[in-house]
Amino acid sequence: MTFNLGEDPFRSDLDSKVYQTVTDVAKAVYGDDNVNVVPNSAGGGPQAPVANSLNVPIVSVGCGYYGSGAHAPNESLRVKDYQTGTYYMVALLRALQ
Q1: Per-residue confidence of the chain (97 residues) as pLDDT tens digits?
Q2: What pLDDT shows up at residue 64?
Q3: Measured between alpha carbons, how far is residue 20 from residues 12, 27, 49, 83 in Å?
Q4: How far is Cα 18 from Cα 13, in angstroms, rounded to an integer?
Q5: What value, to the nearest 5°, has the Cα angle with vertex 57 and ends 53 and 63?
Q6: pLDDT of the residue at 13
Q7: How does DSSP classify residue 30?
Q8: DSSP one-letter code for 32
Q9: Exposure string (b/e) for 13-51, b if CB count within 10 Å is 16 or more?
Q10: What is the pLDDT of residue 30?
Q11: How far apart are CA 36 and CA 28, in angstroms?
């Protein structure tokens, strides 16, 4: 095997104010029982060089449908999920001002 390409791993400080704000707003919008925090995720992009260059925390947020097949023919997003996800992003941006 020959290593051809890769990216450095990255994880923001889970005790940071930004992380707490992101989580608090998600719980307010979706409900405490509907928020899952996944500290590490494959395919997050080149987060390490961006965070290290700018010295900023990075979190990935988005909306999805639990019945969707990730990268499958049935990958989908319901209109209701898109609308709630948009509401979440607006609330998050307001909270981070």
Answers
A1: 898 888 888 888 889 999 999 999 999 999 999 898 888 777 777 888 998 899 988 888 878 777 887 777 777 888 999 999 999 999 999 999 9
A2: 78
A3: 11, 11, 23, 23
A4: 9
A5: 125
A6: 87
A7: H
A8: G
A9: eeeeeebeebeebbeebbeeeeeeeeeeeeeeeebeeeb
A10: 94
A11: 13
Which pair of tokens denotes residue 8?
């450095």
Which two structure tokens, joined as six digits, stand for 24?
Answer: 């608090």
Please give the Cα distance from 88 to 61 (Å, whole number). 9
The Cα-based distances of 38 to 4, 5, 19, 21, 94 in angstroms read 27, 24, 12, 15, 23
Q: Residue 70 in 3-state DSSP?
A: coil
Instruction: Give yes or no for a contact between 88 and 29, defined as CB atoms under 8 angstroms apart.
Output: yes
pTM: predicted TM-score of the whole model, two decimal places: 0.80
